[in-house]
Amino acid sequence: MVSDDEENETPRKKGPKKRSKPQDSDKDNEEDRRSVKSKTSRRKSKNEESDEDREDQQKKKKQGKGNKVVQKKGRVKGKEVIKDKVGEKDKKKKNGKLSSSTSSSESDEESLSEGEMEALKDQVEEKKKLITTLRNQPWRMKRRLVLLKESQEFVEKFEGALGKGKGRRLYAFKVLMSKKCIKFKRDFENFKTACIPWERKIKEVESHFGSSVASYFIFLRWMYGLNLVLFGFMFGLVMLPEILMGLPYGSIPRKTVPREEQPTAMDYAVLFDFGGYCKYSFLFYGYYNNERTIGVLQFRLPLSYLLVGVGIFGYSLMVVIRTMARNANEGGDGAEEGEFTFSWKMFTSWDYLIGNPETADNKYASITTSFKESIVDEQENQKDENIHLRRFLRVLANFLITACLGGSGYLIYFVVKRSQEFAKTNNENLSWFEQNEVEFVMSLLGLVCPPLFETIAELEDYHPRIALKWQLGRIFALFLGNLYTFLFALFDEVNAKLESEKLIKNATEWTFNEYYTNYSSFFNTTDVPPPAVHPADVIRGPCWETAVGREFVKLIVSDIQVTYLTILIGDFTRAVIVRFLNYCWCWDLEAGFPSYGEFDISGNVLGLIFNQGMIWMGAFYAPGLVGLNVLRLLSSMYYQCWAVMCCNVPHERVFKASRSNNFYMGLLLLVLFLSLLPVVYTIMTLSPSFDCGPFSGQEKMYVIVMQTIKQDLPAFIGKVFAYATNPGLILPAVLLMVLAIYYLNAVSKAYQQANMDLKKKMQMARDEEKNRRNNKDSTNQVMKDLEDLLPNKSLIPPPSEEDEQPPPDVVIEKGSKTTKTKPGAAEQGVNLQNDVSLTAPNPRAPVTHAPGPRRGPPRNARGPQPGRGRGRGQGGPPRQ
Amino acid sequence: MGTTASHLGKDLLSEYQELTFLTKQEILLAHKRFAELLTKEEKELPNIRISMERFLDLPELKSNPFRQRICHVFSTSESKDGSLTFEDFLDLLSAFSDSATLEIKSHYAFRIFDFDEDGTLNCGDLEKLVNCLTGETDDTRLTTEEMRQLISNILEESDIDKDGTVNLSEFQHVISRSPDFISSFKIVL
After folding, report:
1. Is A361 close to B173, i.e. CB distance below 8 A?
2. Which value does ipTM take for this structure?
3. I need a surface site. Which of A5, A675, A742, A767 has the fewest CB within 10 A?
4. What pTM does this model have?
């Protein structure tokens, strides 16, 4: 009877599998149960009748082999087939075995032969695979549930039966572990998603403004996470050890406010300026002591400081690049823009996250415009009436903007210089403005210039998307120019400080020498106690590192202030005025001139990026900066979320976020690199201050690493290091890397080329096929079937009742082809998969049916069903 | 499946997690939202269906021009009225979730766009699609000429085998190149 079942099932498999599946599975379950029962009975009897076993085993082995072969074929056929069939097939197989054994000899069962064991193991593995990939099937939940339960049961039942003796234990253990592992992974996933903050907030923004505005907040959140990690490093490895294990405040000069500053050290204005106690706190470089090891743990603080300073860059670099790579992976290849302009507009332009009618209306409008635009574009590709005027205007606009950029650069340089002069005169009666001139001017430039650029860009009359790119590029140039001018001006200051420091250093050394000689000659002893000077009174150098750190902190603080004030005035006040004055105004304020603000995504993202650049640069000189930034991002999140929800209106032109996603990441990478330069430069070339910071007394900052290698590590590592730093080694290494880059580049080009070729070929093949089809539509069925079976025409039309059962080996061949296209191979690049999926059978065969809502799961590589596919004529899936 | 609407069993929960791209929290949230749509007496019934009209009131779907199509595609109702059970609802959310694969998303997108449910996107489907995208009002509608132009352009681009319709594999081919699709084909509760 069981074998009957088996017989019956084979044809059905080729038939409309989906629908019949549930019943099948029920039957299978029964069979399963039966088989299990007999298996257990087998096992019991196994011990007693081991002699008979042997014979039987031999028999079985043969069978097993047969099974194995089938199974292997099945496996080759590809996941889909396996997924769909293995269950039944395996069971059938088993049942087959069973039935043979049950029919021939009821009780002379024995243990599984090796072949069977293998087969069973494979089956279990397949089932497991099925379980993990089940969610990738666009089937109904009910069906998936049934399948899941079924295969889970199967796995549970037969897992235990696998393995013998030692192997069995191990296997059971492995199984158990993998189960636990899966569960743990899932729980961990759940935990991870639960830990992602602001999901709801962002979702709210998303539904009001679409994914583009939300992308800013997601970026902000990402940045927050990054900074949190950086802060963790900084705090855990540098600040905390110094606070806990280092000398306390007031013990040494660098940790004490100098005498002359003490009266004002606690003033609010001074503190707000990060002078006074702030300046001599753990927030800044100067506070850290240069003792090689501190505390009971022998913590090497200077080394740790340097490594963390550099490690921050390393970590950020890694994270940014990883994110970029991931974005690039999932965002399609986008290589052939323009190829699918219309289709993309059509199929992907709706933002399903939009949940706000107003946004939806805007979206409708923008989609319509974009349709119209592209139609017009297509109709008359280029129709410039006055190309000369436009060219002239563009040149003019660029000239103006360059002038703006130069002007702003000069302005900053000028202001920084001036502030240095102010600092030299050390005037107490400087006004607030004069003290904060640099930061003020920089923030103001950042505030005024972007809108100015936008106005100037009107002259150019570019397409909005191109205009946006230009605008972004210009703002980027502005920020970058400002930052670097600021840095150069700062370096001037640093050099000046280094000069003055030399003088002070000489003076102190001289004083010390005087003191020592006097002391020893006076008391006639060589055992000289250190001079009893209060740490606050010691003459000290200017400590340029702290000064630089302070500049950065001040810059960040003023940046925060300006940003927040802009939001408050530019958005909130404007919204309030527009909203309430509208009742008593001569024109419609809401629709007319001031209107409500729009959320400036690109500006905000750029601001965030540059802010991060300053953090990267400044973090080395002011470890507290990262903490400050964490606070800033945290408050930004709430503040901007509130602001955008309460006073902004959705964009009229909604730009998609994802396209620019990697663009922003690229900018971030660039900024990271640019901020890496000055820091590395100072570490490698400038000599640290002699009396403050963890590197005081060293010739250069990096010497600390050499020292550690020499003193604390075994000699051979030092040697290895010495060899490794040898130019003779470094040069070849660089060369090798260059070559590797060249090679990889060439390979990727070749792949691209191959891709293109394949596509061309595919299209050609399709055309040819089509012609052929049209010409001889009436060839006999067999010929057609054969045609369908040729390699690379794996079109599998939907399984249908009427078709005849193809020879089994053919099925297999077919299956093997489809293997590659299965979604299980999701790891492969989108590319490959797509290409293949085009050539390959329509993986969702059922779509070719009238898709009833209750449609069963699509079946792919079932046996070929050429008749039906053909019959469907033009409307069918890709046909050969 | 033994789902009473008021309570979600632990086994079932883990099975749902296995079968969808949703996390535990998301499933629970979905369940809560689903239960909110039910009246009190309905909550006691197993496998209750919620009619499409009530579903369309969800703010997540309200402004979506494809809301009715979405309901129809995910509904398992025999009478094709677009009503959804909880499992259908989970299917929907899973397909629209963040971690769903391109395969799944494009498959369902195709079915959503396939208005007449004949398995291909023909001119009629495309026209309806354009009308959905441009909204209901007259000033955003495209003229017949524009429509014709647009549709012929689209077919030119994506109809690889030139049979006048876009089928699933062609659709997926086009969609998979799009940088925006995955990020915008999302509905989050």
Report:
1. no
2. 0.83
3. A742
4. 0.69
